Amino acid sequence: MNIEELRLYCLSKPETTESFPFDDTTLVFKVCGKMFALVDLEGPLNINLKCDPEKAVELREHHSSVVPGYHMNKRYWNTVMIDETVDDRLIREWIDHSFDEVVKKLPKRERERLGVSDL
């Protein structure tokens, strides 16, 4: 998966926006104003994704390319190094999980507007 495929997949999620709120190289994807993915556009391709705390530890234990979230709350965020060791299908699943983790914390009216009132 390259940066453009990653970007397009994130943007395919409902109500997703992209911006550079921190600097000129950190691309942030948000749903209803809440971050669910961050990509550093400099250096090796990696993505920070929100994650259920138990699942976050499990992914780190089973995938060498998944580490605690760089510059993030390491309980809830993982950094995934996008390389040949991680299948694109898994990356999409983890993006979906991150999106869902953020959406389930949104107010009920926002979840209903997204069509996902019961995550």
> Outline, from the CA principal axes?
globular
Main beta sheet strand tally, sense and closure: 6 strands, antiparallel
Category from helices, strands and their pairing:
alpha+beta
* Straight-line distance between termini: 27 Å
Q: Percent helix among the residues? A: 25-40%
- Count every beta strand, where a strand is a DSSP E run of 2 or more residues: 6
Which series of helices and strands comes N to C? HEEEEHEEHH
Strand content: 25-35%
Strands in their spatial order, largest beta sheet: 1-2-3-4-6-5
Number of helices: 4
C-alpha Rg (nearest Å): 14 Å
Mean pLDDT: 93
- Uncertain runs: none
How would you sum up this structure, described in words?
- The chain is an alpha+beta fold and 119 residues long.
- Helices cover 35% and strands 25% of the residues.
- The chain has four helices and six strands.
- The chain has helices at 3-11, 53-62, 88-103, 108-114; strands at residues 16-19, 26-31, 34-40, 46-50, 66-68, 77-81.
- Strands 1-2-3-4-6-5 form a six-stranded antiparallel beta sheet, covered by helices on one side.
- The longest helix has 16 residues, at 88-103.
- The chain is globular and about 40 Å long.
- 26% of the residues are buried.
- The model has no long low-confidence stretch (mean pLDDT 93).
Short précis:
By secondary structure, the chain is α+β, with helices and mostly antiparallel strands.
